[in-house]
Amino acid sequence: MNACPPSNTSGNTSRNTENAANAANAANTGNTGNAVNVRGGSPACTLSGRVAVVTGASSGIGAATARRLAAGGAAVALLGRRTDRLRALADELERTTSGTALPVPVDLTEPGALDTAARTVTARLGRADLVVANAGAMLGAPFEAAGADEWDRMIDLNLRALVHTARAFTDDLLAAAAAGRPADLVHVGSVAGHTCFPGWSVYCATKAAVGHLTRNLRAELGPRGVRVKNVEPGVTVTELGNDMRDTAMQTTLARMRADLKPLTADDIADALAFAVAAPPHVNVAELVVVPVQQG
Predict the structure, then answer these.
(1) Which position has the higher pLDDT, 42 or 186?
(2) Alpha-carbon distance 57 to 59, whole Å?
(3) What's the Cα-to-Cα distance from 76 to each of 62, 230, 247, rounded to whole Å?
(4) Phi, psi of 17, rounded to the nearest 5 degrees
(5) Fewer CB near the last or first residue (10 Å), C or N of the chain?
(6) Is the pLDDT of residue 17 over 80?
(7) What Cα–Cα distance (Å) separates residue 183 from each residue in 60, 75, 139, 243, 283?
(8) What is the full DSSP assignment across 70-99?
């Protein structure tokens, strides 16, 4: 299984994807001593020519994923609210990669906003065949003290915006699959979707919904050639959670990240890129990526 080499654009390169791809090649050939070196052995990156959409692209996993996909040869539409960051990232990718980067400022929670964004992407880059629904919020608090507005924000971003992202680009993905090309719908979930974390109940519920939505869409769209997958990170250092109001939960999150060697956004981006670079008949359907110490 060939995958694109890890990106150097963010200055934090992971070797895990290369090692996993080499192991897969060894298993496919039955020769564990002569695995293909993906960095030097792949004639062309399998993301070349693809049109990718990444939501929540202004920071964290979204920005790292955009860098990774662009480094692999994809044209990338950057969706998010923070226009200055999107433009800065697009400028960076235009300088450091051969692909095209298109900033698309959008509030994913606004009715109709994603349909408008999808039309912009199609007009500028062509029809999308790789969609990463990554935008989200993580706002912890004891259930009896939590603000309902924080619950609503997580439901709006983690679930409703993700559903509308998928819907806005499903026709494009089906068209790519019908033409015999790879078509990927990637949801960025969380291990919280199947693990209990006191104080994070509503966040966990949104991620559990993402997991089951992914499984159902896989059953619905998979027979028509669209690979629907859920990437579930464990403890990862990003901006996620920085804006929660409950100071005790902020401390809990900081301690969780300090008590083990956490993942970086680049680690998740590398894993995601490996999954979408698989041969078209292969779907890495559920990918749990956690720090070793998290178990």
Answers:
(1) 186
(2) 6
(3) 11, 20, 36
(4) -65, -45
(5) C
(6) no
(7) 24, 14, 32, 34, 10
(8) HHTT-EEEEEES-HHHHHHHHHHHHHHSSS
Question: Which residues face 264 on adjacent strands?
Answer: 237
Distance, in Å, from the CA atom of 51 to the CA atom of 128, rounded to the nearest integer, reads: 5
**Phi and psi for 229 in degrees, rounded to 5?**
-140, 155
Q: How far are the Cα atoms of 16, 17, 139, 236 from residue 261, in angstroms, in the given order?
A: 15, 18, 22, 9
**pLDDT of 4:** 52
∠ CA 44-46-47 to the nearest 5 degrees? 115
Is the pLDDT at 7 greater than 50? The verdict is: no
Let me know if 203 is a catalytic residue.
yes
Question: Which is catalytic among the residues 203, 210, 229, 274?
Answer: 203
Query: CA dihedral defined by 24, 191, 134, 90, rounded to 10 degrees?
Result: -60
Question: Beta strand pairing status for 75-80 and 51-55?
Answer: parallel
CB 260 within 8 A of CB 235: yes
**What's the average model confidence in pLDDT over 32-48?**
44
Residue ranges of alpha helices (H) inside 30-82 are 38-41, 60-71
Higher local confidence (pLDDT), 192 or 42: 192
| Whole-number Å distance between alpha carbons of 90 and 108 | 19
Could you give the CA distance from residue 89 to residue 33 in angstroms, rounded to a whole number? 40
Please measure the distance between the N-terminal and C-terminal CA atoms of the chain and give it in whole angstroms.
Answer: 26
95-138: pLDDT as tens digits: 999 889 999 999 999 989 999 999 999 999 999 999 999 999 99
Return the residue matching tokens 């980067």: 101
Contact 51, 101 (CB under 8 A): no
Helix axes 162-178, 113-125, angle to 10 degrees: 30
Residue 213's φ and ψ, nearest 5 degrees, are -60, -45
